[in-house]
Protein backbone atom coordinates (compact mmCIF):
# COMPACT_ATOMS: atom_id res chain seq x y z
CA UNK A 1 0.00 0.00 0.00
CA UNK A 2 3.04 2.29 -0.36
CA UNK A 3 5.57 2.44 -3.21
CA UNK A 4 7.34 4.91 -5.50
CA UNK A 5 8.21 5.13 -9.19
CA UNK A 6 10.38 7.42 -11.31
CA UNK A 7 7.49 9.89 -11.37
CA UNK A 8 8.72 10.90 -7.89
CA UNK A 9 11.86 9.58 -6.17
CA UNK A 10 11.68 5.91 -7.07
CA UNK A 11 14.03 4.49 -9.71
CA UNK A 12 11.71 2.24 -11.73
CA UNK A 13 9.05 3.17 -14.26
CA UNK A 14 5.48 2.76 -12.93
CA UNK A 15 4.94 -0.42 -15.00
CA UNK A 16 8.24 -1.86 -13.72
CA UNK A 17 7.18 -1.29 -10.10
CA UNK A 18 3.92 -3.12 -10.81
CA UNK A 19 5.73 -6.03 -12.52
CA UNK A 20 8.12 -6.30 -9.57
CA UNK A 21 5.23 -6.31 -7.08
CA UNK A 22 3.42 -8.97 -9.10
CA UNK A 23 6.56 -11.12 -9.34
CA UNK A 24 6.98 -10.80 -5.55
CA UNK A 25 3.50 -12.24 -5.04
CA UNK A 26 1.75 -9.02 -4.02
CA UNK A 27 -2.03 -9.53 -4.21
CA UNK A 28 -3.05 -5.87 -4.23
CA UNK A 29 -0.62 -3.08 -4.99
CA UNK A 30 -0.73 0.70 -4.53
CA UNK A 31 1.55 3.21 -6.24
CA UNK A 32 1.92 6.27 -3.97
CA UNK A 33 4.32 8.73 -5.58
CA UNK A 34 5.15 11.91 -3.68
CA UNK A 35 2.78 14.76 -4.59
CA UNK A 36 2.24 13.23 -8.03
CA UNK A 37 -0.38 11.14 -9.85
CA UNK A 38 1.21 10.95 -13.29
CA UNK A 39 2.36 7.34 -12.88
CA UNK A 40 -1.08 5.98 -12.05
CA UNK A 41 -2.42 5.38 -15.57
CA UNK A 42 0.66 3.38 -16.65
CA UNK A 43 0.71 1.38 -13.40
CA UNK A 44 -3.03 0.64 -13.55
CA UNK A 45 -2.78 -0.55 -17.15
CA UNK A 46 0.11 -2.89 -16.33
CA UNK A 47 -1.69 -4.27 -13.26
CA UNK A 48 -4.79 -4.92 -15.39
CA UNK A 49 -2.65 -6.72 -17.96
CA UNK A 50 -1.21 -8.93 -15.19
CA UNK A 51 -4.59 -9.44 -13.49
CA UNK A 52 -3.32 -7.91 -10.23
CA UNK A 53 -5.54 -5.72 -8.07
CA UNK A 54 -4.29 -2.12 -8.15
CA UNK A 55 -4.99 0.93 -5.98
CA UNK A 56 -4.42 4.50 -7.16
CA UNK A 57 -2.50 6.34 -4.45
CA UNK A 58 -0.43 9.37 -3.59
CA UNK A 59 1.84 10.45 -0.72
CA UNK A 60 1.24 14.10 0.08
CA UNK A 61 3.99 16.23 1.70
CA UNK A 62 2.56 18.21 4.62
CA UNK A 63 4.02 20.83 6.96
CA UNK A 64 2.79 20.44 10.52
CA UNK A 65 4.24 22.01 13.65
CA UNK A 66 7.58 22.70 11.97
CA UNK A 67 7.89 19.07 10.82
CA UNK A 68 7.39 17.46 7.43
CA UNK A 69 4.65 14.84 7.67
CA UNK A 70 3.53 12.46 4.92
CA UNK A 71 -0.11 11.57 4.33
CA UNK A 72 -0.88 8.67 1.99
CA UNK A 73 -4.14 8.75 0.06
CA UNK A 74 -5.46 5.45 -1.28
CA UNK A 75 -8.28 4.75 -3.75
CA UNK A 76 -8.21 8.34 -4.97
CA UNK A 77 -9.66 9.42 -8.31
CA UNK A 78 -6.48 10.53 -10.13
CA UNK A 79 -8.56 12.91 -12.26
CA UNK A 80 -10.15 14.78 -9.36
CA UNK A 81 -9.59 18.49 -10.15
CA UNK A 82 -9.08 19.69 -6.55
CA UNK A 83 -6.57 16.92 -5.82
CA UNK A 84 -4.72 17.46 -9.11
CA UNK A 85 -4.58 21.21 -8.53
CA UNK A 86 -3.57 20.89 -4.87
CA UNK A 87 -0.74 18.52 -5.73
CA UNK A 88 0.45 20.84 -8.50
CA UNK A 89 0.66 23.65 -5.92
CA UNK A 90 2.49 21.35 -3.50
CA UNK A 91 5.07 20.49 -6.20
CA UNK A 92 5.53 24.18 -6.98
CA UNK A 93 8.67 25.49 -5.43
CA UNK A 94 10.50 22.16 -5.53
CA UNK A 95 12.82 23.40 -8.26
CA UNK A 96 13.68 26.65 -6.43
CA UNK A 97 14.28 24.60 -3.29
CA UNK A 98 16.49 22.19 -5.27
CA UNK A 99 18.62 25.07 -6.58
CA UNK A 100 19.12 26.27 -3.01
CA UNK A 101 19.95 22.72 -1.84
CA UNK A 102 22.47 22.57 -4.69
CA UNK A 103 24.05 25.89 -3.70
CA UNK A 104 24.41 24.77 -0.07
CA UNK A 105 25.93 21.45 -1.10
CA UNK A 106 28.42 23.19 -3.42
CA UNK A 107 29.54 25.35 -0.48
CA UNK A 108 29.94 22.13 1.52
CA UNK A 109 32.22 20.71 -1.18
CA UNK A 110 29.83 18.68 -3.37
CA UNK A 111 30.55 19.67 -6.98
CA UNK A 112 27.73 20.10 -9.57
CA UNK A 113 25.13 19.14 -6.99
CA UNK A 114 22.03 20.57 -8.72
CA UNK A 115 23.00 19.35 -12.20
CA UNK A 116 24.01 16.01 -10.74
CA UNK A 117 20.68 15.58 -8.97
CA UNK A 118 18.81 16.47 -12.18
CA UNK A 119 20.55 13.57 -13.96
CA UNK A 120 18.69 11.23 -11.59
CA UNK A 121 15.31 12.91 -11.92
CA UNK A 122 12.56 11.08 -13.83
CA UNK A 123 10.03 13.91 -13.55
CA UNK A 124 11.29 17.50 -13.72
CA UNK A 125 8.38 18.66 -11.50
CA UNK A 126 9.59 16.42 -8.72
CA UNK A 127 13.19 17.07 -7.71
CA UNK A 128 13.65 15.41 -4.34
CA UNK A 129 16.37 15.15 -1.74
CA UNK A 130 16.63 11.50 -2.78
CA UNK A 131 17.97 12.60 -6.19
CA UNK A 132 20.69 14.65 -4.48
CA UNK A 133 21.48 11.64 -2.30
CA UNK A 134 21.91 9.39 -5.36
CA UNK A 135 24.22 11.96 -6.97
CA UNK A 136 26.35 12.17 -3.81
CA UNK A 137 26.66 8.35 -3.69
CA UNK A 138 27.50 8.22 -7.41
CA UNK A 139 30.17 10.91 -6.87
CA UNK A 140 31.79 8.59 -4.30
CA UNK A 141 31.34 11.06 -1.44
CA UNK A 142 29.15 8.72 0.65
CA UNK A 143 28.73 4.95 0.57
CA UNK A 144 24.94 4.87 0.46
CA UNK A 145 21.82 7.03 0.58
CA UNK A 146 21.42 6.55 4.34
CA UNK A 147 24.91 7.94 4.94
CA UNK A 148 24.12 10.95 2.74
CA UNK A 149 21.08 11.77 4.87
CA UNK A 150 23.15 11.48 8.04
CA UNK A 151 25.80 13.93 6.75
CA UNK A 152 23.75 16.11 4.42
CA UNK A 153 20.14 17.01 3.56
CA UNK A 154 18.74 16.55 7.10
CA UNK A 155 17.87 19.41 9.43
CA UNK A 156 21.02 21.10 10.71
CA UNK A 157 23.13 19.66 7.85
CA UNK A 158 24.25 21.25 4.58
CA UNK A 159 21.58 20.88 1.92
CA UNK A 160 18.61 21.12 4.29
CA UNK A 161 16.29 23.80 2.95
CA UNK A 162 13.04 24.18 4.90
CA UNK A 163 10.00 24.14 2.68
CA UNK A 164 6.35 24.95 3.18
CA UNK A 165 4.28 21.96 2.01
CA UNK A 166 0.49 21.44 2.13
CA UNK A 167 -1.49 21.88 5.36
CA UNK A 168 -2.58 18.71 7.19
CA UNK A 169 -6.33 19.36 6.92
CA UNK A 170 -5.90 20.53 3.32
CA UNK A 171 -4.16 17.30 2.29
CA UNK A 172 -6.83 15.16 4.01
CA UNK A 173 -9.57 17.19 2.28
CA UNK A 174 -8.00 16.69 -1.17
CA UNK A 175 -7.75 12.93 -0.60
CA UNK A 176 -11.28 12.54 0.76
CA UNK A 177 -12.69 14.89 -1.86
CA UNK A 178 -11.16 12.58 -4.49
CA UNK A 179 -12.99 9.61 -2.94
CA UNK A 180 -9.93 8.27 -1.12
CA UNK A 181 -8.93 7.34 2.40
CA UNK A 182 -6.25 9.39 4.22
CA UNK A 183 -3.54 7.44 6.05
CA UNK A 184 -0.81 8.89 8.25
CA UNK A 185 2.42 7.53 6.72
CA UNK A 186 5.19 5.93 8.83
CA UNK A 187 4.29 7.70 12.12
CA UNK A 188 7.41 6.20 13.74
CA UNK A 189 9.67 8.27 11.53
CA UNK A 190 8.83 11.75 12.77
CA UNK A 191 10.96 13.54 15.31
CA UNK A 192 8.09 13.94 17.73
CA UNK A 193 7.92 12.89 21.36
CA UNK A 194 4.92 10.92 22.64
CA UNK A 195 2.95 14.13 23.27
CA UNK A 196 3.72 15.51 19.81
CA UNK A 197 2.75 12.27 18.13
CA UNK A 198 -0.47 12.17 20.14
CA UNK A 199 -1.30 15.74 19.07
CA UNK A 200 -0.56 14.85 15.43
CA UNK A 201 -2.79 11.76 15.44
CA UNK A 202 -5.54 13.66 17.23
CA UNK A 203 -5.48 16.52 14.73
CA UNK A 204 -5.22 14.08 11.83
CA UNK A 205 -8.31 12.21 13.04
CA UNK A 206 -10.24 15.46 13.58
CA UNK A 207 -9.34 16.50 10.03
CA UNK A 208 -10.88 13.28 8.67
CA UNK A 209 -7.84 10.98 8.64
CA UNK A 210 -8.98 7.39 9.06
CA UNK A 211 -5.87 5.21 9.21
CA UNK A 212 -2.19 4.99 10.08
CA UNK A 213 0.63 2.87 8.71
CA UNK A 214 1.44 0.16 11.23
CA UNK A 215 3.67 -2.25 9.31
CA UNK A 216 5.96 -0.03 7.23
CA UNK A 217 9.39 -0.33 5.66
CA UNK A 218 10.26 2.64 7.91
CA UNK A 219 9.22 0.87 11.14
CA UNK A 220 10.94 -1.63 13.41
CA UNK A 221 8.99 -4.67 14.69
CA UNK A 222 8.70 -2.84 18.05
CA UNK A 223 7.04 0.01 16.18
CA UNK A 224 4.60 -2.40 14.48
CA UNK A 225 3.34 -3.29 17.98
CA UNK A 226 3.42 0.28 19.23
CA UNK A 227 1.44 1.69 16.31
CA UNK A 228 -0.99 -1.22 16.30
CA UNK A 229 -1.76 -0.09 19.87
CA UNK A 230 -2.17 3.53 18.75
CA UNK A 231 -4.45 2.44 15.88
CA UNK A 232 -6.74 0.75 18.39
CA UNK A 233 -6.65 3.67 20.84
CA UNK A 234 -7.57 6.17 18.14
CA UNK A 235 -9.94 3.94 16.18
CA UNK A 236 -7.73 4.11 13.09
CA UNK A 237 -7.65 1.44 10.43
CA UNK A 238 -4.17 0.04 9.80
CA UNK A 239 -2.09 0.04 6.64
CA UNK A 240 0.96 -1.88 5.54
CA UNK A 241 3.51 -0.91 2.88
CA UNK A 242 7.17 -1.31 2.06
CA UNK A 243 7.74 2.31 0.89
CA UNK A 244 9.82 0.71 -1.88
CA UNK A 245 11.91 3.19 -3.92
CA UNK A 246 14.60 1.20 -5.75
CA UNK A 247 16.15 -2.26 -5.95
CA UNK A 248 19.18 -2.49 -3.67
CA UNK A 249 18.47 0.90 -2.12
CA UNK A 250 15.25 0.36 -0.20
CA UNK A 251 15.56 -1.46 3.10
CA UNK A 252 12.45 -3.51 2.36
CA UNK A 253 11.48 -5.09 -0.95
CA UNK A 254 7.95 -5.02 -2.40
CA UNK A 255 5.76 -7.60 -0.71
CA UNK A 256 8.41 -8.56 1.85
CA UNK A 257 6.90 -7.13 5.04
CA UNK A 258 5.19 -9.33 7.64
CA UNK A 259 1.37 -9.21 7.84
CA UNK A 260 -0.48 -6.72 10.02
CA UNK A 261 -0.96 -7.80 13.64
CA UNK A 262 -4.41 -9.34 13.99
CA UNK A 263 -5.37 -6.80 16.65
CA UNK A 264 -5.95 -4.14 13.95
CA UNK A 265 -8.37 -3.74 11.05
CA UNK A 266 -6.71 -3.39 7.62
CA UNK A 267 -7.57 -0.34 5.51
CA UNK A 268 -8.61 -2.75 2.77
CA UNK A 269 -11.12 -4.66 4.96
CA UNK A 270 -14.15 -3.45 2.99
CA UNK A 271 -12.65 -2.73 -0.43
CA UNK A 272 -14.20 -4.27 -3.53
CA UNK A 273 -10.67 -4.84 -4.90
CA UNK A 274 -9.94 -7.28 -2.09
CA UNK A 275 -13.31 -9.04 -1.95
CA UNK A 276 -12.23 -11.45 -4.66
CA UNK A 277 -8.94 -12.14 -2.89
CA UNK A 278 -10.21 -12.88 0.59
CA UNK A 279 -9.84 -16.49 1.54
CA UNK A 280 -6.97 -17.02 -0.91
CA UNK A 281 -3.67 -17.92 0.76
CA UNK A 282 -1.76 -14.80 1.73
CA UNK A 283 -4.71 -12.63 0.78
CA UNK A 284 -5.51 -9.48 2.73
CA UNK A 285 -7.87 -10.29 5.57
CA UNK A 286 -11.34 -8.88 5.99
CA UNK A 287 -12.64 -8.46 9.51
CA UNK A 288 -15.20 -6.55 11.51
CA UNK A 289 -13.97 -3.31 13.08
CA UNK A 290 -13.17 -3.47 16.79
CA UNK A 291 -16.30 -2.94 18.79
CA UNK A 292 -18.53 -3.52 15.79
CA UNK A 293 -21.16 -6.23 16.13
CA UNK A 294 -20.11 -9.48 14.45
P1 LIG B 1 11.86 15.52 -0.15
O1 LIG B 1 10.40 15.26 -0.43
O2 LIG B 1 12.59 16.11 -1.31
O3 LIG B 1 12.08 16.26 1.12
O4 LIG B 1 12.54 14.08 0.03
C1 LIG B 1 12.04 13.20 0.98
C2 LIG B 1 12.49 11.78 0.63
O5 LIG B 1 13.83 11.59 1.04
C3 LIG B 1 11.70 10.73 1.39
O6 LIG B 1 10.52 10.40 0.72
C4 LIG B 1 12.65 9.56 1.38
O7 LIG B 1 12.53 8.85 0.17
C5 LIG B 1 14.01 10.22 1.40
N1 LIG B 1 14.62 10.22 2.76
C6 LIG B 1 14.38 11.07 3.77
N2 LIG B 1 15.14 10.76 4.85
C7 LIG B 1 15.86 9.66 4.49
C8 LIG B 1 16.84 8.83 5.15
N3 LIG B 1 17.23 9.08 6.38
N4 LIG B 1 17.36 7.78 4.46
C9 LIG B 1 16.97 7.53 3.18
N5 LIG B 1 16.07 8.26 2.52
C10 LIG B 1 15.51 9.31 3.16
MN1 LIG C 1 10.68 9.12 -1.05
MN1 LIG D 1 7.23 9.17 3.30
MN1 LIG E 1 7.00 6.98 0.61
How is the secondary structure organized here?
Blueprint: H1 14-23, E1 28-31, H2 40-50, E2 53-64, E3 67-74, H3 81-91, H4 94-107, H5 113-118, H6 129-138, H7 145-151, H8 168-177, E4 181-184, H9 194-206, E5 211-216, H10 221-234, E6 237-241, H11 272-275
Parallel strand pairs: 1-2, 4-5, 5-6
Antiparallel strand pairs: 2-3, 3-4
The structure holds adenosine monophosphate and manganese (II) ion (MN) (3 copies).
One manganese (II) ion (MN) is lined by residues 4, 9, 34, 130, 245.
Describe the main β-sheet briefly: 6 strands, mixed
CATH topology of the domain at 94-151: DNA polymerase, domain 1
Measured by DSSP, the beta-strand proportion falls in 5-15%
Using only C-alpha atoms, the radius of gyration works out to 19 Å
Secondary-structure element order, as H and E?
Answer: HEHEEHHHHHHEHEHEH
Q: Could you say which small molecules are bound to this protein?
A: adenosine monophosphate, manganese (II) ion
Gap between N and C termini? 27 Å
Helix percent reads: 25-40%
Please work out how many helical segments DSSP would assign: 11
Name the CATH architecture of the domain at 94-151: Orthogonal Bundle
Which structural class fits the helix and strand makeup? alpha/beta
Average of pLDDT: 94
Amino acid sequence: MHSHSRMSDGMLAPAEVVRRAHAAGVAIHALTDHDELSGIAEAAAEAARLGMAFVAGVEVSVSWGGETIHVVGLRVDPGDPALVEGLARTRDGRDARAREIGAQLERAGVPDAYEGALRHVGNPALVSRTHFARHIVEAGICADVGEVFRHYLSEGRPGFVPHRWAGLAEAVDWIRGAGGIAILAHPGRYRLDEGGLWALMDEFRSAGGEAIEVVSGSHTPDQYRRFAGHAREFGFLASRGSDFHAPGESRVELGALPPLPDTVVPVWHDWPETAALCGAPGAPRSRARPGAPG
